[in-house]
Design brief:
5-stranded antiparallel sheet, about 450 residues, signal, 18 strands, 8-stranded antiparallel sheet, transmembrane helix
Length: about 450
């Protein structure tokens, strides 16, 4: 169903609509056709009200269904917390709510939605195993079982950039900060011991190692819901079937995107050169040592697996993967969007395993599929090219997702039966530890090049 004009009372307190912002003089957003500016000024309040109302209606319609849906967030992952190795398997939702829009500030001249979202309560279930390496050297034991958790409430606040696609709008870039509420935990260990606790922060729980994955789940829910709402917004109906105004609006958005995309591309070119010149195309990721167990008859026998000489690349293949968004607030300009690495693969030059006096060794090779990163710049005024980099006051690069990680291990021999355990470790290390190393290196390199502090 396409969107129709519905006038609403002006006393909707939760809704904040900015008719026309006052960006800095160099912002192309100031160069607006008079007819287009007048049309947007008249319609913008109703457009924002429609989005909030559509979100509310969608929440009411879907909540009874969505609350029963089970969705897998993670198949398996592994991370380190101090001296503990933590394995989480089959993390899935057991109870969820559809996102609810609390407030929205729609700026049609900048193709930006500033919003606050309530994701409600989220219940999760997973299998877990925790191994303390210090204890393991003295006594071969681990803790494992089933964990149920309920996050009481999660809210997010930030901005979403959208693009024009034909007659409709599509949410494209997300810049959100999450406030994850109190967490109730209930565990059933493999020894049938039950325990319960309540923690004020996710960082006080086993889930702190996968906070990014949980936030990505929330963002995907918002992206999907926002997509359902925006697809019903017809630009032609929005502009009263005035094709000339639609053309002006789309053209202006495209021209604005070309400017900011050009800025990002002009920044990335010397960054790629810096990466090559400073020999950071391939970066060291060190190694790791883990304990594993394998059933021999009715007995679990422990062994060790150690890899060294790890490298990953190619950082010099960093590129822009889509249109960037830009949001001007007074003299402050926020530029945000998606990047990627054209090539992302690695290896460990040597590994050795020890199990029941068997010690195979070999090499590990890692390849990946699609990856995605976010880049956010904050500037003091508009920048139109590399000559304006002095205006950049903060920067954040975050390679946050890598898909289809494939691991090839040579020479395992008799240990082929536990290869899935080794692969799970390595995949998780790539998605956690390696991403942290890459993010730190790229952030430091770009900040040093721009001359800004971390």
């Amino acid at each position: 169903m396409k969107w129709k004009w519905v006038f609403v009372p002006a006393f909707i307190a939760q809704l904040s609509i900015c008719a026309i912002c006052n960006p800095s003089d160099s912002d192309p957003a100031r160069k607006v056709d008079a007819d287009l500016s007048d049309a947007i000024g008249r319609m913008q309040l109703d457009f924002g009200a429609h989005l909030k109302r559509a979100f509310t209606n969608s929440h009411i319609r879907s909540n009874g269904i969505a609350i029963q849906q089970h969705q897998v967030i993670l198949d398996q992952t592994f991370f380190q917390d101090g001296g503990n190795d933590v394995m989480i398997k089959d993390l899935r939702t057991t109870r969820s709510e559809s996102p609810r829009l609390l407030s929205i500030n729609a700026d049609m001249l900048q193709d930006i939605l500033v919003l606050t979202v309530d994701f409600g309560a989220l219940s999760l279930e997973c299998e877990y195993e925790v191994i303390n390496e210090d204890v393991m050297s003295l006594l071969p034991v681990s803790s494992s079982g089933i964990l149920n958790a309920t996050i009481s409430n999660t809210r997010a606040h930030g901005r979403v950039g959208y693009i024009m696609n034909g007659d409709i709008m599509e949410a494209r870039n997300f810049d959100l900060q999450y406030d994850i509420g109190q967490i109730y935990l209930e565990t059933l260990s493999s020894d049938d011991i039950q325990s319960q606790s309540t923690r004020e922060s996710i960082d006080e729980t086993i889930f702190k190692g996968i906070r990014r994955d949980i936030e990505q789940y929330f963002e995907e829910q918002l992206h999907q819901q926002l997509g359902h709402v925006l697809v019903d917004v017809s630009l032609m109906q929005l502009f009263g079937e005035n094709g000339d105004l639609v053309r002006k609006h789309v053209t202006r958005s495209q021209e604005r995107a070309l400017i900011i995309n050009g800025v990002i591309d002009s920044l990335l070119e010397p960054i790629r050169q810096q990466i090559i010149e400073q020999r950071y195309a391939q970066i060291s990721i060190g190694g790791f040592k883990k304990s594993f167990k394998k059933k021999v008859g009715f007995i679990s026998v422990w062994g060790t697996f150690e890899a060294s000489g790890g490298w990953v690349g190619d950082m010099s293949t960093i590129y822009r993967t889509g249109d960037f968004s830009v949001h001007t607030e007074g003299v402050n300009v926020t530029i945000f969007g998606a990047l990627g690495l054209g090539e992302f693969s690695g290896y460990y030059s040597k590994y050795k395993a020890k199990f029941m006096n068997v010690g195979p060794s070999g090499r590990i090779t890692v390849t990946t599929g699609k990856n995605s990163a976010k880049l956010k710049l904050t500037t003091n005024g508009w920048i139109t090219g590399i000559e304006d980099i002095k205006k950049i006051i903060s920067l954040d690069f975050n390679l946050e997702k890598v898909d289809n990680v494939r691991v090839y291990i040579t020479g395992l021999g008799l240990l082929n039966s536990v290869v899935s355990t080794f692969i799970t470790w390595i995949v998780a290390i790539v998605k956690n530890d390696v991403l942290k190393i890459v993010n730190k290196m790229i952030n430091n390199l770009i900040r040093n090049y721009l001359g800004i502090s971390s």
